[in-house]
Write a structure and sequence with these properties.
Blueprint lengths: L1 H6 L4 H17 L6 H26 L9 H11 L8 H28 L5 H20 L9 H4 L5 E2 L2 E2 H19 L2 H11 L1 H6 L4 H27 L10 H11 L11 H20 L4 H19 L8
Helix pairs in contact: 2-13, 3-8, 3-11, 3-12, 3-13, 4-5, 4-6, 4-11, 4-12, 5-6, 5-11, 9-11, 12-13, 12-14
């Protein structure tokens, strides 16, 4: 019985999907499980995982929470992060991380304030901010981004730990620490789950639900800002709206990983597993040499199916 209970967990679909996709990929392309390809898959998964961590926090907060500005924040920080040039290259790189996280946190704070204080529907509020952020990026760059990506920033995709790139290792460490210290053992983490499950019960327990949820949006924006910097470091060049696809991918990743769109249930590690599943699907479609349009169509259908399956869960918990 205990074994069955262990198997009945939100990670199981993502784990089974990962194993099945790895086998399928190897059958379709003999080099799919090569160390170079696995390293590339983990690199891409790490970037999506960073975006998914923030998205998970927003969704867990409940109240139909959803951050549709993730892709816009990532694109913005991908453009502006490399522009920070203070002192030596290493000093600039170290300063970039808190700077881009602050950029994202500001957008997240506006999102959270609009949702909680002005009572704007989360989907509408974050879509509006997505347009505002995109407009701001276009205004500053005049639609023609010219960004020099420093060697230190590009190094995240080249520096190796054994046969693997260093970024996936760093993200795994961040993920575990956030899962244990922030989401599971901190007072804020417990309050976040309670607020997501039952807002009235949380308020009766003396929890300031509005503050808790606003901070979830701030955290989500900060993580998206960090993900954008890692994306441009990996890509080596910045483009307008280069991270637009990450919005829906981050939602799908956390849903695959067991996070409920109704709020109050989810994990960061589950989001990472979901991100891995989505990246594997993309790699398999590329291995089949499908046209970009057909790949987008198939990915869209997969996302629709995933979200439809999740929507069958109970929507009311009050």
């Amino acid at each position: 019985m205990k074994t069955l209970k262990k198997l009945n967990n939100p990670y199981l679909p993502a784990i089974i999907g990962t194993v099945a996709l790895l086998i399928l990929g190897q059958c379709l392309s003999k080099g799919f499980l090569s160390m170079n390809n696995i390293s590339s898959i983990l690199m891409t998964t790490s970037i999506l995982t960073l975006a998914s961590i923030g998205q998970a926090a927003v969704i867990i907060s409940g109240d139909s929470g959803l951050d549709m500005s993730v892709g816009a924040i990532m694109s913005m920080t991908a453009l502006f992060g490399p522009m920070i040039n203070v002192g030596s290259g290493v000093a600039s790189f170290i300063l970039m991380i808190p700077a881009v996280m602050l950029m994202g946190a500001v957008v997240g704070a506006i999102n959270g304030t609009g949702v909680q204080m002005l009572k704007v529907v989360p989907l509408v509020m974050t879509l509006i901010m997505s347009n505002v952020v995109d407009g701001f990026s276009i205004m500053v760059t005049k639609g023609q981004p010219s960004v020099m990506v420093g060697k230190e920033l590009q190094g995240i995709s080249k520096t190796l730990v054994g046969p693997l790139r260093i970024l996936p290792t760093v993200v795994i460490i961040i993920l575990i620490l956030l899962e244990i210290l922030f989401l599971r053992r901190s007072r804020y983490g417990r309050s976040l789950f309670l607020a997501g499950n039952n807002r009235n019960a949380a308020n009766l327990c003396g929890i300031n639900s509005k503050k808790i949820i606003i901070l979830a949006y701030v955290f989500g924006g900060a993580m998206a800002g960090f993900a954008g910097l890692m994306l441009v470091g990996y890509a080596g060049t910045a483009q307008m709206n280069m991270a637009s696809s990450y919005t829906m991918l981050s939602v799908a990743a956390v849903v695959i990983g067991g996070t409920k769109l109704t709020g109050g249930k989810g994990t960061f590690i589950g989001g990472a597993l979901g991100a891995l599943v989505l990246v594997l699907i993309t790699n398999i479609l590329q291995a089949l040499n499908m046209a970009a349009g057909l790949r987008s169509l198939i990915q869209g259908i997969i996302l629709i199916v995933i979200l439809m399956m999740n929507s069958r869960a109970p929507k009311l918990r009050q």
